[in-house]
Amino acid sequence: MKKAIIIGSGFGGLALAIRLQSKGFQVTLFEKNEKLGGHAYSLEKKGYKFDMGPSLITATEIIQKIFNAAGKNMNDYIELMLLNPFYRIYFHDKTYIDYSGDSESMKSQMAKFNANDAAKYDDFIENSRVIYDEIITKGLGAVPFNKISTFLKFVPRALKIKALHTSFGLASKYFKDFRHRFIFSFHPLFIGGNPFRVPAIYLMISYLEKHGGVWFAKGGMYTLVEAFRKVLLELGTEIRTSEPVEEILIEHGKAVGIRTAQGVYNADLVISNADVNHTYSKLIPQGVLKKWNSNKLSKAKYSMGTIVIYLGVKKQYPELLHHTLILSKRYKSLIDDIFDRNILPDDFSMYLHIPTRTDPDMAPPGCESMYVLIPVTNLSSEIDWKLKARPFVNSVINFLEAEFDLRDLRSNIEVEEFITPLDFQTMRNSYQGTPWGMEPILLQSAYFRPHNRNEDIPNLYLVGAGTHPGGGLPGVMLSAEATETLIIEDFGNL
Ligand SMILES: Cc1cc2nc3c(=O)[nH]c(=O)nc-3n(C[C@H](O)[C@H](O)[C@H](O)COP(=O)(O)OP(=O)(O)OC[C@H]3O[C@@H](n4cnc5c(N)ncnc54)[C@H](O)[C@@H]3O)c2cc1C
Fold first, then answer.
1. Residue 412: what pLDDT?
2. Whose alpha carbon is nearest atom 16 of ligand 1?
């Protein structure tokens, strides 16, 4: 049996471990943290359950395919609950849109703000569908983009379907009202991309939601991590948690294993699911990599950071849906502050996740499990998070209570935890504290993103948000498919 080592247990690492073990590889999975899941970590305190990272599931067929690869059925492992609407989006003027995949509901809500925009909804959705078909239905998301020819072949088609406009640019071609320009352009933020410069290719995410729905896993997102863990144990994968990899061992230009504090482990192939910058600059000796050398890595443009606040509240707020976005008056200039000016402004836009709205078991009876996610600048800024985080969190809670009118919020908080970009760096080795790696701008996407097979070491591979096609659950799970294809090309079916 060929021995494969996977470093990191994010969804990309877990999905690839299942795929390779099912194909006859003997996989050993190394994770630095106590539990599996990467950004999809969980937290439990005083009877409140929190998913620390991803909170919504889309493209369930991509997940189903991973279970199928192991001869299993997803529905035997997790229970998925469909959400409707997907989100309630509040604008600064207190107007809101219940965003869903239901065209009629969307058009009638839009018509109240701008009738012409509502009339263009179907055309916009049709354009998004064509982009989605190119990437998902035709399988480009799961095809390794290792050759410039694969990319060049896609360019004329991409131009024709307007996939190379910016996301905001494409939305603005169709819509005039600021609300509609926001709701049809913000999705790239889910994968760490600035809607004002990432290509409209990523608007396929919104069509992915419309096509397959937005789901929640009963018991929380972490149940999906546990389900993958169960499958891996059934398949016989060795899982080694609390064992950070310190070095990828390279001999004669090939990866021969890894080293941890516990010892050396040999392998026929090594795959890293850890942050790409961490993998290439900390786990491989300097000078080995020609393409992704330290100079190229440092010149790359990295995604935003985020602060996530977890609140256990002994009161319920039925006015908050399962997913609620609360937006600042500013869109572009706030995004500029976060991505380019690298400052921490006084205003913010936020995303609230209230799983108790769908699954009351996520908190004690009558209580609310809440998480508030605020995009912020990454660690390339001068911000001292040790000093700034607490006042910032206080101002978010003040805003929710005083301006958003969540009555008596502060006095009902029983659990309060938060993580900042600094925590992402220490907990998960996320370079610049961004969970999304390199920003998915055009020149850091597809062929231009670090390849699924390393460009210099033929049996070293990547999987996860840092490689093609990119971040988000669908992205990292598709990356497992792309990387598996290369491994099977290289080693054959065992
Ligand atoms: C707050 C937040 C909310 C999100 N919401 C959503 C959402 O709702 N829907 C969605 O689809 N996506 C969402 N995302 C994005 C999504 O969670 C990520 O893109 C995805 O989970 C990343 O998976 P990955 O495979 O890249 O691995 P990661 O999750 O990045 O995991 C990498 C793993 O490698 C480990 N590691 C690092 N270095 C080492 C080492 N030296 N040795 C051993 N192990 C190591 C880390 O500890 C970590 O466990 C969200 C992300 C965040 C942070």
1. 98
2. 472
Provide the sign of the torsion angle of the four alpha carbons 273, 277, 280, 285, taken in this order.
negative
Domain co-membership, 412 together with 469: no
260 lines ligand 1 (CB under 6 A): no
Residue 146's pLDDT is what? 83
Protein residue with its CA nearest to atom 38 in ligand 1: 274
The answer on 259 and 239 residing in a single domain is yes
Same domain, 377 and 352: yes
Residue 126 C-alpha to ligand 1 middle, in angstroms? 31
Ligand 1, atom 21: closest residue by C-alpha: 39
Does one domain contain both 330 and 418? Answer: yes
Q: Check pocket membership of 464 for ligand 1, CB cut-off 6 A.
A: yes
Domain boundary among 213, 239, 255: 213
Supply the pLDDT for residue 143.
Answer: 83
Q: Is residue 284 located within the same domain as residue 398?
A: no
Q: Is residue 88 part of a domain?
A: no
CA distances from 222 to 37, 137, 240, 292, 341 (A): 8, 28, 18, 33, 35
Domain of residue 61 covers: 3-46+54-81+217-300+439-491
- For ligand 1, the distance from its centroid to the CA atom of residue 233, given in whole angstroms, is 21
Q: Round to whole Å and give the CA distance between 148 and 156.
A: 14
**Residue 311 belongs to some domain of the structure:** yes
State pTM to two decimals: 0.96
> Which pLDDT tens digit goes with each residue over 430-457?
999 999 999 999 889 989 999 999 999 9
185 and 265, same structural domain? no
Domain-ending residue, one of 213, 248, 267: 213
Answer yes or no: is the C-beta of 224 below 6 A from any ligand 1 atom. Answer: no
| Weakly modelled stretches of the chain, pLDDT under 70 | 494
Are residues 254 and 326 part of one domain?
no
Atom of ligand 1 nearest to the CA of 471: 19
User: Ligand 1: does its nearest atom lie under 6 Å from the Cβ of 278?
Assistant: yes
Q: Output the pLDDT for position 493.
A: 76
